[in-house]
Amino acid sequence: MSRRVRLIKPLSYGALIAALFLIPLVIKGPYTLHILIWTGISIILACSLRLILISGQLSLAHGGMMSLGAYTSALLVMKLGLSSWATLLLAGLAAAGLALLIGFPFVKLRGIYFAMVTIFLSQMIILTTEQWRSLTGGGVGILNIPRPDPIVIPGLLNMDFGSKVDFYYFILVLTLVTLLVLYAIEHSRIGLTWLSIQQADFLAESIGINTAKFKVLAFAIGCFFAGVVGGFYSHYIGVVTPRSFDFPFAVYAMVYMVAGGMGRFSGPILGALVLTLIPEFVRGLKEFQPFVFAGVLMVIIFFLPEGLVGLPERLRKLVKGKT
Amino acid sequence: MSTEALAQSILNGLVSGGTYILVALGLTIVLGITRIVQLAHGEVYMLGAYAVYYLCAVAGLNFFLALVLSALLVGGLGIVLERFFFRPFRGQILRALIIAVGLMLFLQNAVLVTAGGTPKATPSPFPGVLNILGVTISWERLLVMLVGFGLVAAVLLLIQRTKVGQAMVAISQDREIAALQGINIDRISSIAMFLGSALAAVAGGLVGAMFSVTPFMGGFALVKGIAVIILGGMGSIPGAIIGGLIIGLIDGIVPPLLTTHMAGIISFGVIILILILRPQGILGHE
Amino acid sequence: MLEIKGLTKHFGGLAAVDGLDLSINQGEMVGLIGPNGAGKTTVFNLITGFLRPTKGKIMFDGKDITGRKPHSIAGKGIVRTFQATSLFTDFTVLQNIIAACYLKPKVNFWEAALHMPSSNKKEQHILSRALEIMQFVGLDGVKDMPAGSLPHGHQRILGIAIAIAAEPKLLLIDEPVSGMNAEEVTEAVALIKRMWQRGATILLIEHNMRAAMSLCQRIAVLNFGRKIAEGSPEEIRENKDVIQAYLGASEHAA
């Protein structure tokens, strides 16, 4: 491949990223920014879920993990006065910690049963946030969560998170870093080992791979990112309640992932983008929004088995078939 | 806790347990055959509750008749769902799950839009209470228990004594061998969905009479059903019964002693314990 | 190298393996034969930790490995193949072997995740090892084909190659030539012989009598979970109990 051609890919990614950084210069409406921020959150959730999937397991615990992260970060900032940067990390570690704790009995389960216990785990986290009134404020939740600590580089940067634009940049960087980390891990020996386990876990075990350890590792890493994004959410919205992260979150993350395409790294990204933006275009329909969403889902599942990432290929075949 | 209070709690626990068993039975039958976590099972339950409500409160039918009719209608819906939404994705767990999600969203919102979000109350079939040995039980709850356990016994008999039941067991254990034995998987799948959905509908109707009917009541039922199946054993029908009884009793006895939320947490703890000691559940197959 | 004493496995009331004593020394190729259902694969499962014995002990290199997890036993140097072809079906042949080189060299989590130069060097090493193995087993012609699309005979060879990649001290091969045609059997037998000549220690389950006799120096015969004979191929061929066992089995089949 000639030097020029080899540079095309990184250059286009670079251009894309630059464009993303420039968006707030063009788009200033707080609602639109909110949607973009939400898309970032969705992308992180969907991609981290896919990491768990690569090791052969479907986790539906992301809602609960987000909740855990959100509460952890909010409480650590408000009760211990820690910096929100530290608490964000701790939020992720709390989620990962829980995954490690509970992981080993869970990964003994196969297929749908693993998914089922994760649903249950998620519900239990939510129940705990409702129950532990003294810590979490019970059903009312935590209000007035402070904004993230300001980032000040004298003369260059002054982000006090007073406006959505600052949050946009925050989530943009967070998303890019997450994607980088996920990509790096997936395309390393670890990712290869996960894929081996996904395809034939007995075989993997017989050549010395500690399948339980690797499954728990994937689960923990995936949950880490759910926790971090939960922490972000709490400082962004300013309020967390037990019901903030109920079922829909976990399910939507899975939906974005499958609809976008599980086979490719870019699948969940595409899925999150499309499915977060579509409901916005049909905002006007208000109560019929869920129907449109459900409808789009059905169409993708029925007609695009490899997900949205497979669309260009499908269209190409369709066109070729005609000529 | 006094003996009467304890007895009362146990009784309440049995009543809850009965409904959990019905939901879990339905779910495990569907799960064992179609092999998907029928996330919309809760919505099927909810539809059963609404059907009973409308048949009773609006059409003025007798409660039992309404239950039967609701079971038939919702069971029929189950057959349609299986045929058009789950069968094309047999074996593809993830895609089938998304379809279930889509159905869940659709059904919840369809009911929300048509019936409105305010809770409805199905008129009680037998008002009044019964007093046995110092323990008070409303006729309604007694009914729930009787219908619940009666149905469970009927399902058990069905599974063990009829060819259809045995076919369902065969499919849930090994689909390929079952097909080789000449079992018509399509037909049995339809029957399983009918049965599972009908059971959920009855559970919904009964709960609707005891409490209330809302478009989002399905979530609770689904989580309980999942808990029961994990505890009692994946793929095991007797397991669903035992699991349902345990969780029902926890939900009956713990709330008066501590709080309702603690009951959930204790259930969770018990399940984790079982998972560590016996991952396939109490009566589960390996 | 491997010492099995009194190995027993009960399933319900039935003893699948009953009081098996067997030892294997370094550099030997020992065969394990017997009619269908004699418990041969169960013995493999017990040795490699996929099943826990009801009774008995398994010692490897002087250490007790009874009841340990499969990955740990593989780490100690015992690797097995599977009777039903077990492959990473979506990977190419080359990827299969690269994946199988998990144990050697050991790659640390952070090394791999951060894509450190040491990790890259190890990857290079793994790649050259994998190519070497493929040449050795004769699969380098199809190295980029998805494993699932290979013909049956090649798939079974790949299964052996995967096990080799884990650099075992003791290799347990489960019916390598099942389902192969005559030509493939000859090649597979030659391959296994080559491996043994290079110093491998092998325990072989095989139904194909001729293959087993030509490869193994010592053969143990199982029937209904019990060892009924052990000795050189010639001794086994003449052994009355062995002949009876196989006749009995074919009578049942007929």
Q: What labels describe this entry?
A:
heterotrimer; A: 323 residues; mainly alpha; ABC transporter involved in vitamin B12 uptake, BtuC; two-stranded antiparallel sheet; 74% helix; C: 254 residues; alpha/beta; Rossmann fold; six-stranded mixed β-sheet; four-stranded antiparallel β-sheet; 10 helices; globular
Fold and architecture overview:
Chain A has 323 residues and is mainly α. In chain A, 74% of the residues lie in helices and 2% in strands. In chain B, 76% of the residues lie in helices and 3% in strands. Chain B is built from eleven helices and two strands. Chain B has helices at 3-34, 41-58, 63-86, 93-115, 139-161, 163-173, 175-180, 185-210, 218-232, 237-257, 260-277, and strands spanning 129-132, 135-138. In chain B, strands 1-2 form a two-stranded antiparallel ribbon. The longest helix of chain B is centred in the N-terminal third of the chain and has 32 residues, at 3-34. Chain B is globular. Helices cover 42% and strands 23% of the residues of chain C. Chains in contact: A-B, A-C. Chains A and B meet through helix 4, helix 5, helix 11 and helix 13 of A and helix 4, helix 9 and helix 11 of B.
Instruction: List low-confidence stretches of chain A.
Output: none
Major interchain interface with per-chain residue totals: A-B, 41 and 41 residues
Structural class of chain A: mainly alpha
Q: Ends of chain C: how far apart? A: 40 Å
Global morphology of chain A: globular
Q: Biggest β-sheet of chain C, characterized?
A: 6 strands, mixed
Element pattern of chain C in H and E:
EEEHEEHEHHHHEHEHEEHH
Largest sheet of chain A: 2 strands, antiparallel
Can I get a quick summary?
With 323 residues, chain A is mostly helical.
Topology of this protein?
The complex is a heterotrimer of chains A (323), B (286) and C (254).
Chain A (H helix, E strand, L loop, with lengths): L2 H24 L3 H25 L7 H19 L3 H24 L3 H21 L1 H4 L14 E3 L3 E3 L4 H23 L2 H11 L1 H6 L4 H27 L10 H13 L5 H16 L7 H15 L7 H12 L1
Antiparallel strand pairs in A: 1-2
Chain B lengths: L2 H32 L6 H18 L4 H24 L6 H23 L13 E4 L2 E4 H23 L1 H11 L1 H6 L4 H26 L7 H15 L4 H21 L2 H18 L9
Antiparallel strand pairs in B: 1-2
Chain C lengths: L1 E10 L2 E11 L4 E5 L6 H8 L7 E6 L2 E2 L5 H7 L1 E3 L12 H8 L8 H5 L3 H21 L14 H14 L4 E5 L7 H16 L3 E5 L3 H7 L2 E6 L2 E6 L1 H6 L1 H14 L1
Parallel strand pairs in C: 3-8, 3-9, 6-7, 7-8
Antiparallel strand pairs in C: 1-2, 1-4, 4-5, 9-10
Helix pairs in contact in C: 3-6, 5-6
